[in-house]
Amino acid sequence: ARPRPPRPGVGTALRRISEKYDVAVATTVGSKGVFPETHDNYLGVYGYSGHHRAIRMLTEDPPDTLILLGFDTTQWTSLAWDPALRPARTLIQVGTRPGDIDFVIPADIAVVSDEEVFLRDLEASGVLSASRADNRAYLDRAAGWPLLHPVEPVDDGHLHPADVVLALNRLLPDHICIADSGNHRSFATHYWRTDIQNGFFSANTICGMGWAIPAAVGVSFARDEPCVVITGDGCMLMHGMEIQTAARYRRPVIYVVFNNSSYGATYFNNIHNIPEMSALPTHAWAMFARSLGAAGHRVTSLDELEEAVVAARAATGATVIDVLCSKLPETPAHRYKQNVKSSGVL
User: How many Å apart are CA 177 and CA 199, to the nearest integer?
Assistant: First the structure.
């Protein structure tokens, strides 16, 4: 499922059908939150930084029928156009934009329709009743596979980005998550799980580093819900000044800066080149935040992170938590990176 735009009615209908007929559901990075990510029928994220269970089941144990709902076939959503995304029998693609349908991944049946209308009519038809037992067996097989990649430890004395995301997710499950562009987006996509309907935002086509910093202000106004932004020091150099707006209007936004003194993606893409291509000074983002009227905390341990989150929850406006992270861990996008390299994109 990747409805665009992600409307609440789509998620409600999708959950109702899944629970009524035991239908397995996967999402893409752009549709995290359209279906509860702790639900027993959830396979996980497919595509960039996807979950082990979703990728394994959809490519190695494919269902008889696969419905791509509002799915835009991009390098990110399709695991770099992996041809293994094929059902055993029938692929049905549904969406409002004809240009998205039957693009790169050939569909056996194409339906140009609003996603919510399609789901409503699908449920009303009763056609899924006949497959419920097989659906349940598929979900039972999926349950035998782990959702997440294990966190591989680092030994440079800094926090692992995955551990930070897991801790934030535990401490802030009621917050909408906005993942900025950069390596931290990969860790957020993989290790953050939300049960908030449309509770995760990530820009996955053309959106510059730092976009999430001002975007969170808009999300907090539009949704009137608390937000957490997972961003990086490189992003802060691009648009960090926009924290002033969040502070000025006392928005309930927590900005978590993954401060690894590096442009992370550039570091891995140029790991054998000169350090100046990716190295950054270790800026004091907590002090920067306080200069703009926001609260600011620097943390170097998970205990300090928890204390900072407790303080941020009690604050009446924006807070910046400057987390000293390691730049060494590889992003949890293993299958995606393999496919990108084998296809010659990199």
Answer: 6
Determine the 3-state secondary structure of 262 from DSSP.
Answer: strand
| Contact call for residues 40 and 142 (beta carbons, < 8 A) | no
Residue 267: predicted pLDDT: 64
Nearest alpha carbon to residue 75 among 337, 318, 293, 268 = 337
What would the two tokens of residue 55 be? 């990728």
Strands annotated E in 248-289: 253-259
By the 8 A CB rule, do 327 and 279 touch? no
Q: Is 275 exposed, middle or buried (0-12, 13-18, 19+ CB in 10 A)?
A: exposed
Distance between CA atoms of 267 and 258, rounded to whole angstroms? 15
How large a percentage of the chain has pLDDT more than 90?
A: 74
Task: Choose among 257, 265, 278: nearest CA to 330.
Answer: 265
The pLDDT tens digits of the residues spanning 227-283 come to 999 999 999 999 999 999 999 999 999 999 999 988 767 666 666 667 777 788 899
How many C-alpha atoms does 173 have within 13 Å on its Cβ side?
Answer: 6
* Cα 167 → chain centroid: 16
Amino acid at the residue 1: A
Using alpha carbons only, give the angle 37, 42, 44 rounded to the nearest 5 degrees: 75
> Is the model's pLDDT at 204 over the cut of 80?
no
Which uninterrupted H or E stretch holds 43?
Answer: strand 42-45
Set out the domains of the chain in order of their start, with CATH numbers.
8-142 (3.40.50.1220), 161-329 (3.40.50.970)
Tell how far CA 196 is from the center of its chain: 13
